[in-house]
Design brief:
Layout: E1 2-3, E2 14-20, H1 23-34, E3 50-58, H2 68-79, E4 85-92, E5 101-113, H3 114-119, H4 125-147
Antiparallel strand pairs: 1-2, 2-3, 3-5, 4-5
């Protein structure tokens, strides 16, 4: 799913949300749910079934790219322990006479428990709030990186 924060409409930031479901995990979870005792109200499947939720932010080529270490430290504070982020950049040279272009990518991955979702205990509000904070941080700094 391609997303962007409301404040970023028409802006340079793209956010891609990927939900990675393994069919074998889903089938195994279904089997675990089917063997639960219907009479026991607190019956829960074991907490061993997870899926990955990946957030990927990307910006267009940045003529004045950020210091990656500084950005990684800043985003670690913004994402916190709820949303650990990885910062990377790729420098490419379109042709021998062109200057290098730096593309910035920020990735955060969460493992979500199917058992907690089943029990109604898995709330993603905190993760999504951190996601918005990371997006806003990137949007706030993008003009400097794009225009210098």
């Amino acid at each position: 799913v391609e997303l962007h924060p409301e404040a970023g409409c028409g802006g340079p930031l793209d956010l891609h949300l990927a939900l990675e479901l393994d069919p074998r995990v889903m089938l195994a979870f279904e089997d675990a749910v089917m063997v639960l005792d219907d009479n026991a109200e607190d019956a829960q499947p074991p907490d061993e079934f997870f899926f990955a939720l990946t957030f990927t932010w990307s910006l267009p080529p940045l003529p004045h790219g950020p210091d990656l270490l500084r950005l990684a430290i800043d985003l670690a504070g913004v994402g916190g322990i709820e949303l650990p982020v990885e910062v990377s950049a790729i420098d490419s040279i379109p042709s021998a006479t062109d200057a290098a272009e730096r593309r910035l990518t920020v990735v955060a991955k969460q493992h979500i428990s199917l058992s907690k979702i089943f029990a109604g205990e898995e709330l993603l509000c905190g993760v999504l709030d951190r996601c918005l904070a990371v997006s806003n941080h990137l949007l706030d700094n993008a003009p400097v990186w794009l225009d210098g």
